[in-house]
Write the structure tokens for this entry.
Amino acid sequence: MMPLRLIRFSLCLIIALGFAAAAMAKDRLTIGITQFPSSFHPNIDSMLAKTYIQALTRRPLTAYNKDWKLICLLCTKLPTFENGLAKKERTPKGAQGVAATYTLHPDATWGDGVPVTSKDVVFTWKVGRHAKSGVGDMEFYRSLYKIDVIDDKTVTLHFDKLSFEYNSVSGFELLPAHIETPHFSNPEKYKTRTAFDTDATNPGLVFGPYMLSEVVSGSHVVLRPNATWYGKKPAFKQIVIKVIGNTAALEANLLSGDIDMVAGELGFTVDQALAFEKRHGQRFNVIYKPGLIYEHIDLNLDNPILADKRVRHALLHAVDRQSLTQQLFGGKQPVANSNVNPLDWVHAKDIPTYAYNPKRAAKLLNDAGWNIRRRGIRHNKQGQPLRLELMTTAGNRSRELVEQVLQSQWKGAGIDVRIRNEPARVFFGRTVTERKFTGLAMYAWISAPESVPRTTLHSSHIPTSDNNYAGQNYTGFKNAEMDEILETIETELDREKRRKLWHRLQTIYAKELPVLPLYFRANPFILPKWLHGVTPTGHQHPSTLWAEYWTSE
């Protein structure tokens, strides 16, 4: 028989080894997300998966923090009129413009040791201004008409308009001129030749706390600390981000220990999180963060069926969004009546709304000429069925449930909706970006506070082959008054006057319905009890922008 003291010693050794193993494991953090980026280029394509990962490897000049306050990240001091770093000026054409001076962090260095300098600022600007580069936010680069280089770390940006967010340049993500210049020799081919996709683990592409050390497309990425990072040393020696497109499989991986946490930005749906918390809440911290995340359905307005506003109105009247959000999400995700969240100060309450009203939907469809029923489906006089295709990201359980509810309710109204989903990297990388969806495309926009939706609603931002599919007006919406408001609202500095413009914008949006509003999302963060420092923001800047403050202690 083994002596009692030896048994005790063995138990203590086992426990000690267990704690040591746990401590070693906490040098590595594995995060589960549901999508893989279609591109790693920071200024091409709009996809939250890319933003989430790249926030670990780089920093924008400015960003909104958890308190929704604009701060400097890569810059050293936010330019304002009060501190003299921002000045009103007249453009060469006599318009009211603004000059804002930014100084890059003196120790900011690309991962290969090359300093981040004004050359990178100028190069990024040249890429963005080229008509064939394919960047998402064309308007920013058009408005930024000149850059003065003061020294290696300081530039003055000249804009041809004075905007109320004149010092916010959060979307101006710098590119390494020393690496990307040769790839940009043929601008029209740049989207497919950029090193961000052909050589994604190149250290010279990053200047954040982490760098990519391994990229397996569609599967995972591995990040390790960046030795040239100028900020606080990150606690984790390795961060692995695993892509698990099916949210049920994501939960299984969390419970088995294959992943440590589920990203709130791209993870569980609210309904799944609520059920998970009831069963496993004692093992994890679950945080629900409401925010500026707008789930909606883009309508391809080039489709003759959807070009008729009566059909668009009928589509919304035919679905019971209130019951949908209550039954699927426990009321935690409120119905949206426009693209502006009630959490935002510019939200307008007294705009047209579309309550569930099957009789109203039927009248609108009859008036639009879809008044012949055959086997329950409406047809027009030419015998064409009222048939539309609905698409979203494959494997997202919540969206697939919503699709089924919508399909069923629209069938009750005589509308034949066929579901065809795609992997997120295909859906966002080509189908939506190049307007290849024929009918309805369901996804979410996430924005900053009081974010003017110029790139998604202005007629000059419709992606086409001529502009290499730049812009984000995927519906093809064209409205002269909306264009004028979008141009005016940016330069209106008076808050009350701007509020009125926002009211009119939301009214036009609700009347024209280029998009079917669904609901505003709340993001559930599923975190292990030992992880500290993860702070949800509720807007477009993800929690990973502050990953150097994450710790297991």
In short: The two ends are 41 Å apart (CA to CA). DSSP finds 18 helices and 18 strands in the chain. The longest strand covers residues 284-299.
